[in-house]
Amino acid sequence: MSTLEVNKIKPVDGGTTVQVGESGDTINIPAGATIANAGTASGFAPTGITSAMTSGTGLAIDSAGHVTMPNQSAFSAQANAELSNIPTNNSVQTVKLGTEIFDLNADFNTGTYTFTAPVTGKYLLTFSATLANVDSDATYIAIYIDTSNRDYKDSNTFGINGYSLDEPRVEVSQTVVADMDAGDTAKVTVRQFEGTAQMDVQDDTCHFSGYLVA
Question: Choosing a second label site near 155 at 20 to 30 A (CA), which of 2, 26, 81, 92?
Fold first, then answer.
């Protein structure tokens, strides 16, 4: 093996690039050696990390080690109108979540009160709400997260029939990790079966939020 000892390599006059080796070659950097970079390095993405971004910052790590993803899909919405006098025929009503608190990737629609998944993945979705004027004559009430792939009403359905009095306030909440395909939607819906159409979903206490976790 021959050794080339120089202090500096630069392009020939008029050139702008210095090439080391050919395609398929292995450039060996021995243990203990240091590559010091004071310029701009490109093409050195860590193994296992890929990016199709052409501009902006997809992942940022500050000097204290905090990791942020400024474009990661995440939203929080609040009801902007009360959903009053829920019908008693078990029909599905969509909660009116018309006010955005934040929406990092513009995936929540305040006109349809719906989140649309931008990519296929697992999404953490959560909501909380207050039901007012709950009728004790209703057989059951369900308020739950409803996605394109499935609804989650089984875990958020409760029986009312048998209560001696109407309930002025009932606090409800739900959290799920939902598998969603790109283009799938998620919203909060409510149903009532039998009883009197008097129950309301209060606007100032209902929140729906979510983000892409994997």
Answer: 81
Q: Which amino acid appears at position 53 of this protein? A: M
CATH of domain 74-212: 2.60.120.40
4 burial via Cβ count (<10 Å: 0-12, 13-18, 19+): exposed
* pLDDT tens-digit readout, 168-180: 999 999 999 999 9
Count, in order, helices (H) and strands (E) of the chain: 0, 14
Name the residue among 189, 206, 157 with its Cα closest to residue 87: 189
Tens digit of each residue's pLDDT (9 = 90 or more) over 121-147 = 999 999 999 999 999 999 999 999 999
Report the run of H or E that residue 152 belongs to, with start and end. none
CB 201 within 8 A of CB 140: no
Phi, psi of 154 (to 5 degrees): -60, -35
Residue 19 CA to residue 42 CA, distance in Å, equals 14
- Using left for φ > 0, alpha for ψ between -120 and 50, and beta otherwise, residue 137 falls in alpha
pLDDT, position 32: 86
Residue for token digits 């971004």? Answer: 53
Rounded distance between C-alpha atoms, residue 29 and residue 35, angstroms: 9
